[in-house]
Amino acid sequence: MKSKFLFTAFSLTVVSQVAIGEVKLNGPLGERLSTMIENHVVARDVDYITAPFFTKTERQRRWQTEFWGKWMHSAVPYFEMTGSEKLKASIDRSVNRILSTQEPSGYIGNYPDELRCGEGWDVWGMKYTMLGLLHYYDGEWGMGNGERIPRRPKEGVAEGDALAGEGAGKRALEACRRLCDYVIGEIGPDGRRGRELWQTGNWSGLASSSILEPVVWLYNRTNDKRYLDFAAYIVKGMTEPASGPRLLDLALEGVSVADRSSSKHNGGYVMKHNRLKAYEMMSCYQGLLEYAEVTGRKDLVEAAVKTGEDIIREEVNLAGGCASSEAWFHGAGKQHLPYTRLQETCVTTTWMRFCRKLLDVTGDPKWADQIERTFLNAYLGALRSDGGEFTAYTPLTGSRWHGMHHSFMHTDCCTANGPRGFLCYLNAFFRVKDGAAVLNFYSSAFMNGESANGKKVAFDMYSLYPRKNYARIVSHTDGAGVVPLKLRIPAWSAKTTVKLNGKVQKDVKPGAYYTIEHEWKWGDVVEITFDMPVIAHTIGKNVAFTRGPVLLARDSRFNDGDLTEPFRKGIRNGQVMTAFTPVRTPSDAMAMVFSATLLIGSHHENPEAELPTTIFFCDYASAGNTWTRDNYYRTWFPVELWPGD
User: Fold this and answer.
1) pLDDT at residue 472 above 50?
2) Per-residue pLDDT at 256
3) Cβ count within 10 A of residue 378
4) Residues 223/152, Cβ–Cβ less than 8 Å
5) Domain 436-529, CATH
6) CA angle 188–190–192, rounded 5-degree value
């Protein structure tokens, strides 16, 4: 158990963080996690992803140096979870290789001197290198849980004494400090390059400015004020210059993320003055929240919250994904249309991480609602069934397919980023906060932690959620006194039933935490039954269906007719006027399947075509998961038009 300071309802409180190793997923979701760790994280060729650091020849301004730091973010906590000696050996080898490439100046990267800290992705790469080194430092001390845990030296203890004897972890931290010192010397307030940090990279400085996150981490681990001063300088660049990211004033003014571009022409992939890049913008807000935790800047928290709320309202689709060509585009209202490069996995993962940080800072369960929807749909839909790869883009209609080759390497940013999403889900699953045990998600799992009085608390949950609308939680706690158990009640579940030892609890409300004040004994049982009707969502003359947090899809493997046929009747005011019946899945490749008898097709002038048709739906994450071109799926369907429409 570790403690860290953070804002809850914009006030400073202390939270005990549960490490991911204290949440053990079981059942189908646990199996997916295990295969992803083994076939993706453990299987990663670390020599390949660290090889670029040995050359300084990157002249095409690519991002080869991001892959190692992303991998480290997941590798360290997954090692702590599994104890895999193979993974530990890869982690140690990769760190030694990275450290061997550090120049006397402190630089770690692959750009020649004349192109460093310029218009390419050099600063972005150094950001991820810093993150990788800090994850290793945390793991070396047995405190890494894949996220930020401030570890400032104790008051009155000299920094050198506090760091003495740390071995490899100390080497990694020192290398991170030297790398940060290099960045400060090049593009800090008095940098020799003669340019501001936010003026480097692309997208109005969003990519380079996101280095704020590891800079704050570094301050939290060293207590060196130089890094807090540098962080303040970065924040100033992110919030004040008229041509910069402007992450504060535009957010507080209520300007939607898709309307924040400083260019009249928003086309093209890379533009110097374009603030529409989703992944990088959210990464910057994560850094601002880290900085706010240290400094108490409530305006930064407010800006991040307003931005997150705007993304929910304007961008997030029914699968919990967002962005087209990695950019904001008011996508929520356009999700029925075939936009290109939809739901980049980097955006999906970063949206989850942004929501997790907002959940920590505000304590508002709506951010857990968002994590759940994204995780169960867009995220798991992007993960290949064997866990070995993430697709780069996951359309709402189409086919799953392999990612791109980035930066002249046989990998891509999404495959590197993907494992961090599962990590985010685990981080938010169960925690002990303000003396209460907080449960955000429902899946078979064993959870344990430590209450405010130092007593152990543990619960065992059995559930087939979201396939089933039921979860059973059994107490493995005794002698800990009264420990409130806070259960997240999803906003979509209008009528949720909670029972404690068979007794129905009162005043359970959607979109809030329900707290059970109880002195737990071994064998106490909590049962939760969620309200999961199938809901029809319409945009214009188009319809899609959800059940609970899950988006439903038709899949060509059902061989049940033309997937482009329009719907005629059977939908009224968002209510489906026919039953969606759970049926046996045709194979283990599909997690859940429903049959529905609906009026579809425009050719209904003869008695046969006039009859309803029984068709099948599966969960979105299962749709198209063979990753073959002939496996086509669809989530949005046209509704029949009449001459007067």
Assistant:
1) yes
2) 96
3) 31
4) yes
5) 2.60.40
6) 90
